[in-house]
TrEMBL record:
SUPFAM superfamilies (UniProt xref): Lysozyme-like
Segment forming the signal sequence: 1-19
Matching InterPro entries: Lysozyme-like_dom_sf, MltB-like, SLT_2
Protein name: Transglycosylase SLT domain-containing protein
UniProt-listed PROSITE patterns: PROKAR_LIPOPROTEIN (PS51257)
Positions with biased composition (Polar residues): 24-33
Residue ranges occupied by any Transglycosylase SLT domain in the UniProt entry: 172-215
PANTHER family the UniProt entry points to: LYTIC MUREIN TRANSGLYCOSYLASE, MEMBRANE-BOUND LYTIC MUREIN TRANSGLYCOSYLASE B
GO BP terms: peptidoglycan catabolic process
Amino acid sequence: MPRRLWLLLAPVITLLASCAPQVPTSSSRSSGEFTLPSAVAPPDPGVDPPAVRLLAPGGPPLPVSARPQGQLAGWAESMSDELNIPRAALQAYGYAQQLIGENSPNCGLSWSVLAGIGAVESSHGRYGGARLDETGRPSIPVIGLPLDGSTGVKRIPDTDGGRFDGDQVWDRAVGPLQFIPSTWRDWAYDADGDGVADPQDIDDAAVAAGNYLCSVGGDLRDPDRFWKALLTYNESRSYGQEVLDYADYYGKASHRIPLEG
């Protein structure tokens, strides 16, 4: 069962009433509840994914079988069960780290940071009983509450004609990393080369989120810049600490797992 249910509000990416996942370890699986240790920025970056061939932008659409994130199948398989992160999500986070590292080498973005965000926002695309398929899309679209200005909720009238969130009156955050439609329009990225930039696709969302963090934070290995990025991503300090705690846990735990390929 999820540890807790809560709502967080952000100017850029908004958390729906989301369930953060348990992060079991071998010692805690039998006891059920697991409390994350409080972490200090920056989080442990985790075990680097093996080098992959990065997709060149502007090419013809690729079939699912050629999804570049799939190159990290062995790396993700080694850690998925222990970290309780879907394989497709780990592949997306690891690929995003490498792609952004190539394009923004001074940012220092790690897959563990993206995993921390994915955990808090939607349990890596598993909110509401959804599961990620092999293309990185949830079986049930992840769509947040209407941002109608009610108590504790920002007021954002519709900006996408319901294209992404199905709501022609109010905006709603969408996808595993919970992009507001207007923000997705600015940061949309087709990371898997299928010809579509889709916020429900965790491959695309992971790169878009990483690009945003690097643009506002600069070097995320610097504690102050790390916090600047997170607090721009979401103004809540408690949200930022939750992301940091998950990121640091995932990073440290990955060093204890025998990795493959």
